Amino acid sequence: MKPDFETIRDNAEIRTYITQADASLLALGYTEHSFPHVMRCAHAAADLLTRLGYDQRQVELARVAGYMHDIGNVVNRVDHAQSGAVMAFRILDKMGMAPEDVAVVVTAIGNHDEGTACPVNAVAAALILADKSDVRRSRVRNRATISFDIHDRVNYAVERSELKLDTEAKTLTLELTIDIGISSVMDYFEIFMGRMLLCRKAAEFFGLKFRMTINGSAVL
User: Fold this and answer.
1) Are 97 and 68 spatial neighbours (Cβ–Cβ below 8 Å)?
2) What beta strand segments (E) does the chain contain?
3) How far apart are CA 30 and CA 81, in angstroms?
4) I need a surface site. Which of 42, 110, 128, 138 has the fewest CB within 10 A?
5) 84-135: pLDDT as tens digits
């Protein structure tokens, strides 16, 4: 496989699209989707496949997909997974990545958004889990919005988020610590239930049961 993740991470064209995509989402009032988010997704997806015993090629492709998965937001938030997949195809093909590797990355990017997502391969499943579990206070850009914007309020309330794999028990658990003085558990489920059900489907791809705990109590 060429190019490697470091080459892709440092590519000026890709960095420009990530930057502008996040700027568009900022204008629309969305949480942070810039380099902290995409790097977390890249590392989390790769780490999950590593712990599940996938080979280095799949791990590296998961890093690439995680890093590039939101570039379609530079076009529009609507259908950004599909437009991002088309953009990624052009970029990676131009960079000389092998078609069989481009196909894996493009498939994962095109299947990561909950409206149309499906864990159709290991990289797609890992990307879904990495993306949907990135809930954290630092993604909120403006504290003034937490009083009336439920998405910002829920993200701001999350003090800790960790995805834990237990290979013996065959479980994947999203552990959240939430300040219930800022947001209730019910608020979380109101906006994230669809994402959690998608995570369950992605975990099942690996033969795992998806669980979630909030403040130490099992809720899913």
Assistant:
1) no
2) 158-166, 171-178, 209-214, 217-218
3) 16
4) 138
5) 999 999 999 999 999 999 999 999 999 999 889 999 999 999 999 999 999 9
